[in-house]
Amino acid sequence: MKIKKNIATSENGFIFNPATGDSFSGNAMASVILVAMKNGVNPAEIKADILKKYDVNAAQLDRDWEDWIIQLKEANLLELELNHGN
Amino acid sequence: MEKLPYERPYIKKLTPGVMNKFGNHSGAQPFKYIDGIQVTKLVEAYGSPLFVISESQIRRNYRSAYRAFSTRYPKVQFAWSYKTNYLNAVCQIFHSEGSWAEVVSGFEYRKALGNGVAGNKIIFNGPSKSKEDLMLAIENDSLIHIDHLEELNLLITLSESLAAKPRVAVRVNMDTGIFPAWDRFGFNYENGEAWNAITKVVNSGKLQLTGLHCHIGTYVQSTSAFGVAATKLTDLALRSKNKLNQAIEYLDLGGGFPSMNTLKGAYLPGTDTLPSIDDFAEEICNKLINSDFAPNELPLLILESGRALIDDAGYLLGTVLANKRLADGKRATIVDFGVNTLFTSFWYDHQISPAQDFPPHTENMVIYGPLCMNIDVIRENINLPVLNPGDHLVVHKVGAYNMTQWMQFITFRPAVVLIDERQNIHLIKAAETLDYIEKNENVPRHLKAK
Fold first, then answer.
1. Lesser CB count within 10 Å: N end or C end of chain B?
2. CATH value at residue B344
3. Is A68 in Cβ contact with B9 (below 8 Å)?
């Protein structure tokens, strides 16, 4: 689950997809996670880091993570992970 | 080390386009207090969902509406429309302000009597009045508004043996230029039915024709329609005096003034588009004052306004149960009140506010009630901040019709509290219980659980 390489992000939450021209604004938490994802940090590490620094419990974070991934998929910001099967 | 505040990660697509000529939509604001009482404390004390009624707001609404009419016309009387909200505490507020009672069934009639309203200050409307209801109303010298010929004939028969003449009014329906024209209640003006009914009442010699009544519609957004109604009733009243020698004591223009709620499908909010009570008063009173009534013979003007007087005095408090993403990526929030409790969500796009502080990002979402029914949708589209389970919401302007048309369906009906003018909280209707609902049920012996 990786963010597309060409996606540009800024510290204040602006996200730009040069392939489609779509732009997005994200909140502070979204910016933090996007930067980590772009740097190749895996989800478990990102979540552990958030739990350490932010006032949230693991259950809530897991719930929100599910929603976060759906948002990224909807926004077409994730690399396609093709399952070749055999 | 103190942890940083967390908020759910959220991105929103930016869509460039033409600037909105109406300016930026003002976002939701946290609504934490009702008449100085904290919303979360109300929910903690009385449960969720919970209806809250502001006595101060009812009195403000009543006084402002009464002032709108009484400063323009010399003789004005309001009658509280029981069906809009017949919780006894609510009715008593209106009665204490000087309202008579306007009822539309034997049940409501007896409720008004129970509230201590004098019989001669009860207006009995509606197409369904039983013989017993009519006898009770006659005995109490109430104002009976005749809806159809069967009722008129029954009243004449009932009054055969009476010494005093029952006081009646003829309900008139008419074309006032609005759609739909309500022609199902009363007698039609244009085709002459209304005049025939008036003639029949007067010629019977058994009934005292005291007034004329109309109620042209509900949530009427045009002031001119009320002007037309006032003109047509005036015409009938003057004809009655000139041709039948029967003076009309009052004209009852009914209700139908809108509250400031936004109807479904409306582009702009009701607060921006609807005429005020003063606009309606100006139209009605001008027509009456400028009519051919002699100044000393102006009839009493009765108004039966309901929703305009109470809608914004009622709030529904609720709690978020869950969030989900729908198949198309749209956010859905599930709350603990449904269309069974908030009946008016079928008509209105109710304003909904979170009852706590929230982060600045908002998201378009659908709000579903808790019923396992597809129709249970409170708002199909609303921009709200991210809501977490356990968060409280406040639905605005729910005072009219919800506490009478609510359905006992799937869940219990919630409690209703009143905040009085001194900020004391009173439980005016307790939440339903299983015992209450099953009280009148009977299971045959062979079907009883063993």
1. C
2. 2.40.37.10
3. yes
Please give the pLDDT value at position B7. Answer: 85
In order, the DSSP letters of A3-15 are B-TT-EE-TTSEE
Nearest residue of A to residue B385, measured between CA atoms = A27
Q: What is the percentage of chain B residues whose pLDDT exceeds 90?
A: 81
Tell me whether A16 touches chain B (CB under 8 Å).
no
Chain A positions touching B11 (Cβ under 8 A) are 15, 24-27, 30, 71-72, 75
Give the model's confidence band at B27: pLDDT under 50 very low, under 70 low, under 90 confident, else very high. Answer: low
Q: Which residues of chain A fall short of a pLDDT of 50? A: 85-86
| CA separation for the pair B391, B9 (Å, rounded) | 18
pTM of this structure: 0.89
The answer, for A45 touching chain B at a CB cutoff of 8 Å, is: no
Chain A CB contacts of B12 under 8 Å are 24-26
Gyration radius (Cα) of chain A, Å = 13
| Any A CB within 8 A of B36 CB | no
Burial class for B154, CB neighbours closer than 10 Å (0-12, 13-18, 19+)? middle
And the tokens for B236? 């009938």
pLDDT band, residue B359 (cuts 50/70/90): confident
Longest dimension (CA), chain B: 92
The size of the A-B interface in CB pairs under 8 A is 65
Pairwise CB contact (< 8 Å): B13 & A68? no
Is beta strand B76-81 parallel, antiparallel or unpaired with respect to B100-103?
A: parallel
B32 in contact with A at a CB cutoff of 8 Å? Answer: no
**Judgement on whether residues B100 and B130 belong to the same structural domain of the protein:** yes
Residue B441 within any structural domain of the chain: no
Note whether B229 and B97 are same-domain residues.
yes
B443 domain-assigned:
no
Q: So what's the pLDDT on residue A86?
A: 46
Contact B360 A27 (CB under 8 A): yes
Do B294 and B246 have their domain in common? yes
Question: Do B329 and B272 share a structural domain?
Answer: no
Length of chain A (residues): 86
Any domain includes B6:
no
For B359, the closest of A23, A27, A60 (CB atoms) is: A27
- B277 with B308: CB under 8 angstroms? yes
Q: Give the model confidence (pLDDT) of B270-319 as tens digits.
A: 888 899 999 999 999 999 999 999 999 999 999 999 999 999 999 999 99
User: CA of A84 to nearest chain B CA: how many angstroms apart?
Assistant: 25
Going along B22-166, which residue ranges are E strands?
33-34, 37-38, 50-54, 76-81, 100-103, 122-124, 143-146
Residue B108 in contact with residue B136, Cβ under 8 Å?
no
Asked if B318 and B193 sit in the same domain, the reply is no
Report the Cα A7 to chain-centroid distance in Å.
11
Contact A23 B14 (CB under 8 A): yes
Tally of structural domains, chain B:
2
